[in-house]
């Protein structure tokens, strides 16, 4: 049986989630945003294990091991942190509470790369994603940073979205309501995104990169609708029915 997964990867603010959500809607599939699950775990850690400085190994600079991988995974299981399918979208929940909006805070954004770099956390998230897809018969569009390379390497369609740093910075500012769109704001946001790119692409586990058989789509000069149309056309060609 053909694995009915469309893997959409790319750097921060490349349009992955927006594109994936609309592609899923056009195809009548479900949408799973892997980043939302990493953010939900990060929120759980910050709320329950404290705001310690942390490190890529999950251990804070101060005394104790509040951020050890074992404690993070135990917390995720106990609360629990999970994905819940609601109207063909997998929604992140923490302790039964919808956190889809809360996880987009700057507080979570600052720490999510740190948590996501922990191998045990990545393994746990990957298991949740695979189980979610197995339980959905029609198909799932999954977006993230290692979906086509690690999570679903056998996906019949892999797309890697990219865009110039300036365009991604503009989009990120627009997502926040359009406030601060001057040259200085764009420059600062581009620097933040560049730092995130470096962290994601140089981590030891599942670094951000396009799968060898991925279709690379530069969206710098494409509208969201054009991006969606391009992916839907690829999906209908490779996954008919």
Topology, please?
Elements: E1 5-9, H1 16-27, E2 30-33, H2 34-48, H3 69-78, E3 81-86, E4 89-94, E5 97-98, H4 106-116, H5 119-134, E6 140-144, H6 147-151, E7 157-162, H7 165-175, H8 183-202, E8 215-218, H9 224-238
Characterize the structure shown.
The protein is of the alpha/beta class and 241 residues long. Helices cover 48% and strands 16% of the residues. The protein contains nine helices and eight strands. Strands 2-6-1-7-8 form a five-stranded parallel beta sheet. Strands 3-4-5 form a three-stranded antiparallel beta sheet. α3 packs parallel to α5 (119-134) and α7 crosses α8. The radius of gyration is 17 Å and the shape is globular. Residues 53-65 have low confidence and may be disordered.
Strand content: 15-25%
- Please, what is the average pLDDT? 89
Please work out how many helical segments DSSP would assign.
Answer: 9
| Poorly predicted sequence stretches spanning 5 or more consecutive residues | 53-65
The topology string of helices and strands comes to: EHEHHEEEHHEHEHHEH
Can you count the beta strands?
A: 8
Structural class: alpha/beta
Query: What distance lies between the first and last C-alpha atoms, to the nearest angstrom?
Result: 13 Å
In a few lines, what is going on in this structure?
The protein is an alpha/beta fold. 48% of the residues lie in helices and 16% in strands.
What are the defining features of this structure?
single chain, 241 residues, alpha/beta, five-stranded parallel sheet, three-stranded antiparallel sheet, 9 helices, 8 strands, globular
């Amino acid at each position: 049986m053909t694995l009915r997964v469309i893997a959409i990867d790319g750097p921060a603010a490349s349009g992955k989630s927006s594109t994936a959500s609309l592609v899923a809607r056009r195809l009548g599939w479900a949408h799973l945003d892997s980043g939302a699950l990493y953010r939900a775990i990060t929120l759980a850690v910050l709320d329950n294990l404290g705001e310690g400085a942390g490190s890529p190994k999950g251990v804070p600079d101060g005394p104790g091991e509040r951020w050890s991988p074992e404690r993070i995974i135990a917390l995720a299981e106990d609360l629990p942190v999970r994905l819940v399918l609601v109207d063909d979208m997998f929604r992140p929940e923490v302790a039964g509470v919808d956190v889809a909006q809360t996880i987009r805070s700057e507080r979570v954004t600052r720490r999510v790369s740190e948590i996501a770099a922990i191998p045990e956390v990545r393994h746990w998230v990957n298991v949740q994603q695979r189980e979610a897809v197995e339980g959905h018969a029609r198909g799932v569009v999954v977006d993230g940073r290692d979906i086509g390379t690690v999570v679903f390497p056998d996906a019949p369609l892999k797309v890697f979205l990219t865009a110039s740093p300036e365009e991604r910075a503009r989009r990120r500012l627009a997502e926040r309501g359009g406030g601060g769109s001057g040259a200085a704001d764009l420059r600062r946001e581009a620097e933040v995104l560049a730092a995130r790119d470096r962290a994601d692409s140089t981590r030891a586990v599942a670094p951000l990169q396009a799968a060898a058989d991925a279709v690379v789509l530069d969206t710098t000069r494409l509208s969201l609708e054009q991006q969606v149309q391009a992916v839907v056309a690829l999906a209908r060609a490779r996954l008919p029915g």
